[in-house]
Amino acid sequence: MTTSLKNWFVIYTKPNAEKKTALQLEKIGIQVYCPTIKIIKQWSDRKKKVDTPVLPSMLFVHIENHLRERVFEVPNVVRYLFWQKQAAIISDSEIEILKQSINFKKGFKSHDIKDLKPGYKVDLTEKGFKNIKGTVKYVKDNKCWVIIEPLGYLLKLES
User: Fold this and answer.
1) Which H or E run includes 140?
2) N or C terminus of the chain: which is more exposed, having fewer CB within 10 Å?
3) Any idea where the NusG-like N-terminal domain is (predicted)?
């Protein structure tokens, strides 16, 4: 008898369907992580705190490799993220780092964005990413995109 280990995989969903898809996956017994943050959305007549996915159209599923096809039982799942022609596997430690960084209370405002240039190395330790550096990819207006190489993420910072 062989025992299969569960791995974290990244799946793409249809746009704006992350939370709904996560609930549907949980209903069929698949462990799923949808990283969200609370942001204040403003409409013409009101403001409201809304849980917004951190990684648009992406979810993490914890599943055995031979059961990966089960995610397609849910209508909004598009495909898996692939790396070198294989479904990308995310380590438990990377998922934990992502969870810690999202729960980190200080935010991402210690650098003045206008001083950042593409290629600049940013220390993200104070932002909840222990001993991790990112590289500035783009800077536009009050926004900055930082690549977190060890995790393969692109992080958007705003001032």
Assistant:
1) strand 133-140
2) N
3) 5-102
Using alpha carbons, select from 67, 49, 55 the residue that is nearest to residue 19. Answer: 55
Do 84 and 10 belong together in one domain?
yes
Q: Which of 9-23, 74-88, 96-110, 131-145 has the lowest mean pLDDT?
A: 96-110
- Span 22-57, pLDDT tens digits: 999 999 999 999 998 888 888 889 888 888 888 889
Tokens of 85: 């022609």
Which residue, among 49, 62, 50, has the nearest Cα to 22 in the 3D structure? 62
Distance CA 28, CA 110 (A): 42
Q: Which residue has the tokens 């009050």?
A: 142
Give me the count of residues in the chain: 159
Task: Tell me the pTM.
Answer: 0.65
Query: Looking at the structure, do residues 123 and 74 belong to the same domain, yes or no?
Result: no
